[in-house]
Amino acid sequence: MLRFLIILIGLMGAAYAGERPVMRVSPDVALMLEMDLMMLEGLGGQILTHPERTTVIEVTSFSHKGLLNENLCDDSVSKTYARVKHWFGKSTIQINEEFIRLVYSQQDIFPCKHGSFRQFLTASLWHELGHVWDRETDFSTESQYAALMGGASAFKSSDNRAAPTTPDAYEHKNLRESFAVNLEWFLLDSTFACKRPATQALLEKALGFRPFNTDCDLNWKLLTQSAYPEDHYTRSFDIDPARIYQVHYLFAGKGTALMSRWGHAMLRLIVCAPHRQTPGPECMQDVSHHLVLSYRASVENPQISHWDGLTGKYPSLMFIYRFHEILQEYTKQELRELWSIPLPLEREQIEFFMKVTLERFWGYQAKYLFLSNNCGTESLRHLTAVDEKLFDEIGDFTPLQLFRGLSRLSGFEEINNRKADLEIKGLYFPSHRPLLEEAVMTLKQYGLTNKQDLKSFLKTKAQERLTIYQNYSWEELSMLDTRTVLMSLQYIERYANLNYNLNLLKNITKKIENNAELKNLVETEIQSFMSLSLRPWEIVRDSYGVPSSESFEQQFAQYLAKRLASMNQSKSALDVLLQHPLLKQEAQDIKNLREISNIITIELARPIWYRQEAP
Amino acid sequence: MKKILVVCSLLLVTSTVFAQNRISAYLMSPFALVTRLAETGIVVTSAGVQTLLGPFLTTRATLEARGIAGQEQIKDELLAFDKDMRLGLVGDIEDIRQPGIRELFEEISRDEEELKRIHNFYPEGSLILKLSTIITLKLFY
């Protein structure tokens, strides 16, 4: 019966150009391996079981093994189960004879990888057959696959890779091993399509078959990150492609800091509000639902080290923010312009873009290199993973080059001189600088400052400004003038507050470094803020890849409950911190800023009823 | 690692500085809403204003759903919006040029129950006027 099946499948395989591998092994091992080949063909994998290269399978003694039971789940121990050698058009798959011995002698199930030695033998054979196929096609190194995995540079060192989210850390060795490991799981895990949906799609397309026809329930939810602790990992968003109108390239113009001279590259998702039936141009108005993907160095210190950025000390991660937060960060905090270029993606490409996004959010981490692996290269790789041809000719060295290239591609270049029109369409967002300068002038006009411009206004002490506001004769202003002044005042004082705190961070960090007592206080009092450095897969995690909807709902709810409890503790801990003598001046500054806020709020309520004095 | 704790602590301070204020009752008299406050005997504090605005559940939820950055964005947009209002450029929600405020007002106005509550509370004035008043109070108190 078995012989009949082998002949039948052999005939089926005749449609493929190549031939089945030649077995140079004992009959009992050959039988096992034949069963594995049959199983692979049963899944539709004839393209792998009939390599175009002459392929031989043999069992040999390896010089290094490491195949001990206690080492099985330890990825730090090097183990060789099998390997393939390519030589003049011929490939030889060598299986470790110790491995074969374990397959026969050990029936135990182990809690990692493929679960048993027998299953592991199957996976290893398919893994090596994958290498043979990849040798012919160069699929792993020259296609969208390489872009999806972060390019060859992502594999130069494994210390920044997201080890906890991998089914097998060996995939981080290089692109070819990445492909072979993913192939194993593509062939053996019926839920792979939901765990690595973008990889699944690329493998299906390249190999021409789908091993499992069961439709798993892909979880489109992800968590948004934020610089504000209250908003960090506290909300989930659905990026189901059915709710996405467009994808834009979002470009922040150059800033004053060294690392922002080339601008910053981001990707904006035009997510439609839940009440929209179908995606369309009206979704451009749903700004609070729009999301931004931003590849950044994960820096956990306000004192950014340029040297560390140049030498790959920071991990490169894809962060997801709400669009409003990016607007605040760039146009207000950094006083930079933002350009939003719609990318010419079809619906199918948008769907694939979202799969890439999901897969990367839940498991991608590479090494940030300021010159060679930055936000521009990472963003372009994200796009290339979606469609390598469309973005083939875009320069990728800097975000600015990407801006110019994508502007040409999208026809955006022709219209980008009309900023006012673009602003109305939601495609351009100016810096706050002109409005802030105007606000200073308004205050000067009403005698609330003697400063000529924003720069000099920001140099004034909060105490100095507070005194002016406290002594000001608000009652003498008309209701309408009060409103005008206070709108400008709240606007610029909130900016001054933000600016003060950004500088304060650096000063306090220095104080902490030089004072063990303060450092200890921070460590013991504000533990809950540890969550800000968490990776998404440390909040919600399945065995690997994108978590299922069930895991997501359950684990995220648990995380939120703990998080809310710790946030409340943190607020009181902050008061404790500000009572430290070393932070006396900071505490006073913050008190003054609050007083300014009080005055504005009190006065703002007076003329808020517009009807009182219509123009 | 620990340095980030301080960074975050300070961001927390930033976000709450403009939200913890008390209001002096005597300054409120020209303001219709506060007159109502006085009539109902509610202590005129930030908490008092929030109590008064308590029934506007959709308004509160839509603002909170935007997170801190979203609320900051709307506060920023109020400057230009206020100018447009004074110039008489805003007759309807569609006329609003500030994207965050326009989206917010549209979202609130889709809830008919909320609109009834707002109209009952404020029998006079345009919808834009009522919404902008409530939003300003919600954001600054």
Polypeptide structure, described:
The complex is a heterodimer of chains A (615) and B (141). Chain A is α+β, with helices and mostly antiparallel strands and 615 residues long. Chain A folds into three domains: 2-207, Collagenase (Catalytic Domain) (3-Layer(aba) Sandwich); 221-429, no CATH class; 433-613, no CATH class. Chain A has helices at residues 2-13, 27-42, 46-49, 97-105, 117-137, 139-142, 144-148, 175-188, 192-195, 197-207, 306-310, 323-333, 347-361, 375-386, 399-410, 419-424, 433-445, 454-459, 462-471, 479-513, 516-525, 549-578, 584-605, and strands at 22-24, 54-60, 82-87, 90-96, 221-223, 236-238, 244-252, 264-271, 291-297, 315-322, 338-342, 366-367, 428-429. In chain A, the strands form three sheets. In chain A, strands 12-10-9-8-7-11-13 form a seven-stranded antiparallel β-sheet. A four-stranded mixed β-sheet of chain A has the order 1-2-4-3. In chain A, helix 10 (197-207) packs across helix 13 and helix 17 (433-445) crosses helix 20 (479-513). The radius of gyration of chain A is 30 Å and the shape is elongated. Chain A starts with a helix and ends in a 10-residue tail after the last helix. Mean pLDDT of chain A is 85; it is low at 10-14 and 607-615. Chain B has 141 residues and is mainly alpha-helical. Chain B has two domains: 23-52, no CATH class; 55-141, no CATH class. Chain B is built from eight helices and no strands. Residues 1-44 of chain B have low confidence and may be disordered. Classes of the chains: A alpha+beta (615), B mainly alpha (141). At the A-B interface, helix 12, helix 20, helix 21, helix 22 and helix 23 of A face helix 1, helix 2, helix 5, helix 6 and helix 8 of B.
